[in-house]
Write a structure and sequence with these properties.
By secondary structure, this protein is an alpha/beta fold. It contains 8 helices and 6 strands. Strands 3-2-4-1-5-6 form a 6-stranded mixed sheet. Strand 2, helix 3 and strand 3 form a beta-alpha-beta unit. The longest helix has 21 residues. It is globular, with a radius of gyration of 17 Å. Bound molecules: (2R)-2,3-diphosphoglyceric acid. (2R)-2,3-diphosphoglyceric acid (DG2) binds next to helix 7.
């Protein structure tokens, strides 16, 4: 049996547009991001993709993208599960900082180590920082120890994979088509797992905003072929733009 999984990074956020490190800061979609989300819904319809169950992170930009896309596809009724383990990587003390200024201040090597290394987290954020989530009520159902102060991609994989196995994989193996609305780095973590990408090669993988990526998986949840973006040209351009972030003024 083939199991279908669709991954969607949220549309462009206000802070993607302003070129700021975001992580767990709860920013909204930009006007461009809202259009991307609507296009994602149209792409689902055009490709006859009807998910049975929906997953989102706890962050508004992913939830807004989900709502706009499902509205376009007339699928607002679908059962939806939201979980912090799909949240973006916590960007630590970089949250709220300008990417171009950070690049200029620390240089390309340090900047890319923070953005794309596998296991080097940025400096931790202080609990009383205006961009800390330590006292955010939306995480009152998880223990304070679990609320990150910073995360590497490796740490994201460690917190995401248990949820993948307990919930998402289970739904897929039950024969459901699953759609996940999440983030650049939480989806890089999932793609690394699904495609078996090495710790070093994952540095080169960038996920564009708002374009559904479709996986067909076998009974061991291994891809039966290369996953495909529903708009490959826009996806290539979008991924290149993400890779170049920081170089923007
Ligand atoms: C971006 C990813 O996350 O940034 O946290 O700044 O997907 O929630 O917009 P998203 C952020 P990069 O790792 O690509 O710099």
């Amino acid at each position: 049996m083939v199991h279908k999984l669709i991954l969607v990074r949220h549309g462009q956020s206000d802070w993607n547009e302003k070129n700021l490190f975001t992580g767990w800061v709860d920013v909204r979609l930009s006007a461009v991001g809202e259009k991307e989300a609507a296009r994602a819904g149209e792409l689902l319809v055009e490709n006859n993709i009807r998910p049975d169950v929906v997953y989102t992170s706890k962050l508004s930009r992913a939830i807004q993208t989900c709502n706009i896309a499902l509205d376009k596809a007339d699928l607002l009724y679908l059962d939806t599960k939201r979980d912090w383990r799909l949240n973006e990587r916590h960007y630590g003390a970089l949250q709220g900082k300008d990417k171009a200024q950070t690049l200029a201040e620390y240089g390309q090597e340090q900047f890319m180590t923070w953005r794309r290394s596998f296991d080097v987290p940025p400096p931790p954020i202080k609990d009383d920082d205006e961009f800390s989530q330590y006292n955010d009520v939306r995480y009152s159902n998880i223990s304070k120890d679990e609320i990150p102060k910073t995360e590497s991609l490796k740490i994201v994989i460690d917190r995401l994979l248990p949820y993948w196995h307990s919930d998402i994989a289970k739904d897929l193996l039950d024969g459901k088509t699953v759609i996940v609305f999440a983030h650049g780095n939480s989806l890089r973590a999932l793609v690394k797992h699904l495609d078996g990408i090495s710790d070093s090669d994952i540095a080169g993988l960038n996920i564009p905003t708002g374009i559904p990526l479709v996986y067909e998986l076998d009974d061991e949840l291994k891809p039966t072929k290369k996953a495909e973006y529903l708009d490959p040209e826009a996806a290539a351009a979008g991924a290149a733009a993400v890779a170049a972030q920081g170089n923007k003024k």
